Amino acid sequence: MPGKLEKQHFQYAGWSKTSFSEVVSVKGPGRLLFLSGIGAEDTGDAPGVIHHPGDVYQQTRLAYEKAAAVLARHGATLADVVKISAYLLDVREAPNYHRARAEAFKDAPGLPAHTFLFINNLAWPGMLVEVDLTAVVAES
To answer: What's the domain of life for this entry (predicted)?
Structure first.
């Protein structure tokens, strides 16, 4: 019989409690999933086709929808995500990013650890946000 996967979320600073976990601890038999940077790029054969030009909120929603679909193919959900690294071009768009992320994780039992960076360029012109995710799934 496989052992149980235990995941704990820790938030020490008062201001972080509604935004992210400062530490996520995982113990037990599990499988790690590392998702490469996901943004609003189309999933078809043509590279660099970006959906929702100029709209950080919609690009972020699409990125997390795509992440959820990839995770599902591996028996996981967004609730299994333990770490996010997010990259955004414009600091003024942070509230739109955070609103879409909060919607994506509204049903998760705890928030992932989260690093938020503002950079000059992303993978494709027109891409405004990109997320890398790490998930842990219990072994069945």
So the answer is: Bacteria
Residue 2 reports pLDDT greater than 60: no
**Residue 105 DSSP class:** T
- Mean pLDDT of the chain, nearest integer: 90
Q: Are 35 and 133 in contact (CB under 8 A)?
A: yes
The full DSSP string for 8-38 is EEE--SGGGTTT-BSEEEEESSEEEEEEEEE
Measured in residues, the chain has a length of 140
> In total, how many domains does the chain have?
1
CATH classification of the domain holding 51:
3.30.1330.40
- Domain encompassing residue 65: 29-138
Q: Among candidates 126, 21, 38, which has minimal Cα distance to 7?
A: 21
How confident is the model at residue 25, as a pLDDT? 79
